[in-house]
Design brief:
- The chain is an alpha+beta fold and 219 residues long.
- The protein has five helices and nine strands; from the N terminus they run H-H-H-H-E-H-E-E-E-E-E-E-E-E.
- It has helices spanning 8-21, 26-32, 57-67, 71-76, 98-101, and strands at residues 93-97, 119-121, 134-137, 152-156, 166-171, 176-184, 188-193, 201-204, 208-217.
- It has a nine-stranded mixed beta sheet with strand order 2-1-3-4-9-5-6-7-8.
- It holds the Pfam family Peptidase_S24.
């Protein structure tokens, strides 16, 4: 197999494609490989003065070990048009880490993505259902055993929520959590914890900024 000359863009394209194949964000892939979670962030691909930053050969080796990909498969992803290996690709949806979700400026009052600082992830969502759908990346072990560090949750704030649904809730105090909806009334909500080591929670509706349904999660 013949390959074009390696370039900065082709190396990063291959890393992004490998992350996508495993339903991970770039930071999720870095985490799985035992690297700093920010190693593959788009903001790290250029220096402050605009110069290209390249991933180290050690980082690429760790990524191959973590995903089980061969060198030949990685090299194939360097080629233009390698996205054809992922049929049905659609424009990316917004992606944010759970640790950042509690900060102001990322959501509007209805729980829809807003402002700057979002990354992107490819995920097949029908065009008519794309508005407002976004992804949250699990960070840490607080949602074990259901969700692991690096898992991606696809969230739709416009979807109707019912008892038993897995939901993401943001409080007026800025706390963001993923729970199971046990009860929803005009006055308040009861939430069951995904992790038995963490308590169940109850809130009055005046203390809830928004609630959004989890549509899908990588496993």
């Amino acid at each position: 197999m013949e390959f074009d000359m390696l370039s900065h863009d082709s190396i990063w394209r291959a890393i992004d494609a490998l992350a996508e194949r495993h339903r991970l964000s770039p930071s999720g892939l870095a985490r799985r490989a035992g690297l700093d979670p920010t190693s593959f962030n788009r903001s790290k691909r250029k220096s402050a003065d605009g110069r290209d930053r390249w991933p180290s050969t050690e980082s690429i080796s760790k990524v191959l070990d973590a995903t089980g990909a061969t060198v030949e498969q990685f090299m194939a992803l360097l080629q233009p048009g390698s996205g054809a290996m992922f049929p049905g690709r659609t424009p990316g949806i917004p992606l944010l880490g759970f640790a950042q979700a509690g900060a102001g400026g990322y959501f509007d009052d209805g729980g829809f993505p807003a402002g700057q600082g979002w990354d992107q992830i490819d995920f097949p969502v029908a065009e008519e259902n794309r508005a407002g759908v976004y992804a949250l990346e699990v960070q840490g072990d607080s949602m074990l055993p259901l969700y692991r560090d690096g898992d991606i949750l696809i969230v739709d704030p416009s979807a109707q929520v019912r008892r038993g649904d897995r939901v993401v809730v943001k409080t007026q105090a800025g706390e963001v959590m993923a729970k199971v909806l046990a009860r929803l009334t005009p006055r308040g909500i009861d939430l069951l914890s995904l992790n038995p080591e963490h308590p169940n929670r109850s809130f009055e509706m005046k203390d809830v900024e928004w609630i959004a349904r989890i549509l899908w999660a990588s496993q």
